[in-house]
Amino acid sequence: MKRYLKIISLITLLTVLVGCAYYNTFFNAKKRYNEAFEKQKNVKSDRVPSDIVKGYMAAIKKAFKIIDVYGDSSKYADDALLLIGKAYYNQHDYIKAEHRLNQFLLKYPKSSLIPEAKLWMAKTYIGLEEDEKALNTLNKLFENKVSKKIAAQAFFIRGDLYFQRETYDKALKNLEKCLRIVRDEEMEGNARYMIGQAYFNLGEYENAIFNFDKLLNLNVPVLKEFEARMQIVESLIQLKKYDLAERDLKKMLRSIRFKKQFPLIEAKLGEIYELQGDPQFAVEQYSDVIKKYRRTEGSSLAAYDLARLYEYHFAQLDSAEFYYKKVGAISLQPEILQEAKERANLLKEYLKIRNQLRKDYRDLMKLAAGDSLLEDSVAVQPDSSQQNDAFNKRESEAPEPAINTDMPDNRQQNEFDVRKNANNPPGNIDENMVANEDSSLLQQKRKRTTPKKVAVTRSPEEVQKSFKHNSFALAEYFLLKYMNYDSALVSYKKFINNFNDSLLTPKAYYALYFIYHDIKNDSLKADSIKKVIITSYPKTDYALKLTKQLVEKNEENTRRSIYKDLYTKGEDLLFHKKYRPAIDLFHQIAEEDSGSIWAKKSLYAIAYTYEHMLHDTTQAIQSYTTLTKIYPNSPFARVAEQKIKPPKIKIVKTEIPDSSQVKQKGPEEPDKSEVPHLLDEQKDQLPKPPIRQAKTQKNEPIKPPNKKKKIDF
């Protein structure tokens, strides 16, 4: 008996130990999951950090251990499988999440966790961009009685889905239902925030502020509270209540709770100063943020706003380029980084043209002023013989140097004697003095023949050519790349004033015409520039373009008038039952005015006449076929296709005869009675028939669409 009791006790102890180990494994899996989930709440970006991914993977590993070791029928097997699906979803691995959640729904149809699993399945469908499946899953969830907690989550998910679709009325309706039954402060805070954001997007800023204020009374994470306060500031800005917005921002700066967000708060203060009309104070604020908070999101935004101010307000494009590059170095937001990079590259191109243009201008000024430093720099250096001849000429023409009376007597006398007896034999003078004098003259000669410092390294022709090229390049840059049309106008006008005989001058005039005609809609100035191009540059492509447009327009109007009258004459012939002459006239129009609306109408009139007046089915089908081949995309061709389409063959189920009894038949030609009548079937879609019912009723031409021509520079 005692032995039996010992065995029972041992089995009970082992069961308890196994149960404890089983529970501890699930407890550790859930613990790892919750730790990763709490960390993820404070992550603002869509990318999941690696440490959080590791936490979720550890939870998945332990959950799989429960299923592998203890089997699918164990107590926590369904909890473990659901946890795996949730962990994959939180990592944005929606395919694996869908697979595990489907597995859960099939394996455990009677589990009490089925409603929760359906919620996560709906969220997974949203992640996979299968919104309709998500809505169907949520709707089916409400078919059965569920707890308030599940219902609140379902309303929230549905509201979030409509919010992402920008269907704000339905989003607000579901989120309000969620608020009425929710008991979780975190979910209530998320619902309040989304309601406030929906009202903000609808432009109802007072309602947005009301809901964001409601959120601040809840126990929500710091990041959510910060976002709500910043949205209140944004709403106040939209209402132009800048003083209140500034007050709220400075209040946030006094709270250590938002220490990590101080860079963003101070950057927003700079925006407030800018909106209040104090850009210089805003520049100082942005600069302080960049210096105080390096490599943060706030300093990135401050650098971007500072660059924007320098570009658009102060027009200091070199400073703007510098700060746009700084955004590229410290930005944490991909969209800001991309835009800043594009602006920096755009301004870099401008600065390159501008700096070269300034250099050209300075060199032109030096050349025009005749700067002494230009000697031996803009001309070819002479050879040694030429240099000696020039030197001797300057020596002969130089005035006699005056004797310095302040010099000592002996030096003065010696200098005088040397110059006086310069032609005497060397033996009659002091050899040392002669040597010194020769050395001095040689140094002076070398000094005079040494090329002076180069001030302009290019020839005048090269400078002028570069100045012309860069002047035009600047105008093209403003028009085609920077799209500042006022600056483009100024630059093109300067180019025309400076280079009125250049090969690029007509192109500059044409660019002015394009800006005034297509962008400014100033027809008066556009017409005056057009006259200049046509009269002053008649043989250029630009003059030909403008004159061709005028000629084509006049010719088109004349041609329309001529062939419209001919087509009307053909209708008159049909009205008087002169079918053959009418057909001949329509053929003439189709050949001479090919491609026009009258040619299409004429071909259609020919086929229509054969079908309805002459009752010649063969010729009618042939004419309709010709129409579809020549003008396949016209509305007449679509009607013709219906006309020549073979009749539908009714299929009757019969026994398959022997192949030897089947007779081979060629394609059947449709009977005249099977050709559909045009006007009876397509009245709303097709033009009128070519026959007039009375002389006062005429077919009006179908006007082609007025396509705007692309200006090719």
Task: Please provide a written account of the structure.
The chain contains 30 helices and no strands. Among the domains are: 4-218, Tetratricopeptide repeat domain (Serine Threonine Protein Phosphatase 5, Tetratricopeptide repeat, Alpha Horseshoe); 460-537; 558-642 and 673-705, Serine Threonine Protein Phosphatase 5, Tetratricopeptide repeat, CATH 1.25.40. Mean pLDDT is 78; it is low at 13-19, 372-435 and 652-713. With 713 residues, it is mostly helical.
Quick rundown:
This protein is 70% helix and 0% strand.
By helix and strand content, what is the structural category?
mainly alpha
Largest sheet: none
CATH architecture of one domain: Alpha Horseshoe
* CATH fold description of one domain: Serine Threonine Protein Phosphatase 5, Tetratricopeptide repeat
Order of helices and strands: HHHHHHHHHHHHHHHHHHHHHHHHHHHHHH
Low-confidence stretches are: 13-19, 372-435, 652-713
Q: How far apart are the first and last residues' alpha carbons, in Å? A: 109 Å
Shape: flat
Within CATH, the superfamily of one domain carries the name Tetratricopeptide repeat domain
In terms of DSSP E residues, the strand content is under 5%
The residue-averaged pLDDT reads: 78
